[in-house]
Amino acid sequence: MEQPAQRGHRCVPHTADVRIEAWAPTREECVAEAVTALVETFTDTAGARPGPEREYETPPGENEDLLVTVLDEVIFRMETADELPLTTDVTEEGRGGLRVRWRVTGTDGVELIGAVPKAVSLHELRFGPDGGGWSCAVTLDV
Prior knowledge:
Layout: E1 8-12, E2 18-24, H1 27-40, E3 43-44, E4 53-57, H2 63-81, E5 83-92, E6 98-106, E7 111-112, E8 119-130, E9 133-141
Antiparallel strand pairs: 1-2, 2-9, 3-7, 4-6, 5-6, 8-9
Helix pairs in contact: 1-2
């Protein structure tokens, strides 16, 4: 994937679902970019106020599993706690998993602009080193 910047994300055309791509210098920053891309596929967060900080630790796993676990957690929290991350910080937690810290806002504090993702698809999932950094491509079921 040709990357227009050192760190970023984009939504790419896909038949019935939503597909996101993200890239960054490190694995953890790439996961954070993917979270931002996920939220931006269906919300406009302009004007949203950051609320409390939330923390989540993934169990140890393969890189693709870690990415899916984090994105699934965002969808789960949206559905069960009515909150979405405005900022995301991801670090290695030391045992093969990831530690994720979010500053969240209530779902009522953002404008819905697209179809809300229901799950992360494993179809055509890609996540790994890419040249001098990391990149991922994920399809979201809507």
